[in-house]
């Protein structure tokens, strides 16, 4: 799963660039994700993207957290805009699933249905931000009964310390690995 890799979230000029872009660049998250997605496609794995986007005017935004309040104040992540789209280097391919949600985590009823209908019980999760959307999605996936693998070197947070703390916490719920350590089984799909 590729979590919230949209212009406003990870782009150099996005609404949250000041928070996330330095660590995204330093950790080479986009490069790592590009390679991870290429290998997953070559192995025939199902690729799922989650993106967070809201209707113009934010009628579907529930500002129940400081982060979502920031979205509303910045007027960002508006569905249909370039800055709410997945960035060009990570653009979904034919057959990839793209789930749009209005919550911090990517796990919701649409994702649960997709996993169940596809017989998917293991999720490799990567994206931004480790301590927010990645962690929220991973925790919900575990509660849903999935085996979760966090691809640590394809994730980042606003600060390295926040990323490290989240990875340490997730280590009790998920397998933590790096892109180079993933063994792709073409028969697994």
TrEMBL record:
Keywords: Hydrolase. InterPro entries: Isochorismatase-like_dom (IPR000868), Isochorismatase-like_hydrls (IPR050272), Isochorismatase-like_sf (IPR036380). Signal peptide: none annotated. The keyword Hydrolase applies. It comes from the Bacteria. It holds the Pfam family Isochorismatase. Residues 25-176 form the Isochorismatase-like domain. The keyword Ribonucleoprotein does not apply. PANTHER family: PEROXYUREIDOACRYLATE/UREIDOACRYLATE AMIDOHYDROLASE-RELATED. This is Nicotinamidase-related amidase. The lineage of its organism: Bacteria, Bacillati, Actinomycetota, Actinomycetes, Micrococcales.
